C-alpha cells in the first residue's frame, strides 16, 4: 500500500522515453564547445552548459579522471576533436573526413 501521494506502479514494463536533452529547459540543447568562458578549447564550458552544471565542476571532474588513471586527457582531446564549436556546422573530425582542414 502506498501513502506518498504517488500512484502505485502497475508492474507493466514500458520503454523509458527521455524528456529533453540533459540540462535543457523546454528546448533540445546541442553539445557545442563554447567560444566564451573557455580556458583551453571550450570543452568543459560546453559540456557544463549541456549538463546544466557549473564549468568548474566539469573541470574538476576532468582533473580527477586525469589523476585517477589518466582518462581525463584523452576524453578532453576526443571531445575537442569530435564536438563542434559554437557557430560551426561540423566538428574538426567531420571537417577532416570531408576534406576541409581547419
What does this structure look like?
Helices cover 38% and strands 0% of the residues. By secondary structure, the chain is an all-alpha fold. It has a domain at 43-97.
Which features characterize this protein?
102 residues; mainly alpha; 4 helices; 38% helix; 0% strand
Task: Write the element-wise H/E pattern from the N-terminal end onward.
Answer: HHHH
Got a strand count? 0
Arithmetic mean pLDDT: 78
Q: Please outline the major beta sheet.
A: none
Would you identify the regions where 5 or more consecutive residues have pLDDT less than 50?
13-26
Distance between the termini: 62 Å
- The number of helices is 4
Percent in helix:
25-40%
Alpha carbon gyration radius = 19 Å
Find the structural class using helix and strand composition.
Answer: mainly alpha
Strand content: under 5%
Based on CA inertia axes, which overall geometry fits?
Answer: globular
Summarize this entry quickly.
This protein is mainly alpha-helical. It has helices at 43-51, 55-67, 72-82, 92-97.
What's the topology here?
Elements: H1 43-51, H2 55-67, H3 72-82, H4 92-97
Amino acid at each position: 500500500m502506498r501513502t506518498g501521494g504517488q500512484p502505485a506502479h502497475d508492474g507493466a514494463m514500458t520503454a523509458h522515453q527521455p524528456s529533453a536533452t540533459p540540462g535543457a529547459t523546454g528546448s533540445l540543447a546541442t553539445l557545442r564547445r563554447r567560444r566564451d568562458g573557455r580556458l583551453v578549447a571550450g570543452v568543459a564550458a560546453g559540456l557544463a552548459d549541456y549538463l546544466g552544471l557549473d564549468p568548474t565542476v566539469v573541470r574538476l571532474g576532468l582533473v580527477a579522471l586525469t589523476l585517477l588513471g589518466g582518462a581525463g586527457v584523452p576524453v578532453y582531446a576526443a571531445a575537442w576533436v569530435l564536438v563542434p564549436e559554437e557557430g560551426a556546422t561540423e566538428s574538426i573530425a567531420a571537417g577532416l573526413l570531408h576534406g576541409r582542414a581547419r
